[in-house]
Amino acid sequence: MFETRIEDYWITRPDTLNLGYIKDLNHFLILYNLSIAYQPCEDLPDFGILQLSKEDAKTILDVLKDNSLINDYIKHSIQNYIAK
Question: What is the pLDDT of residues 74-83, one digit of tens each?
Answer without folding.
Answer: 898 899 999 9
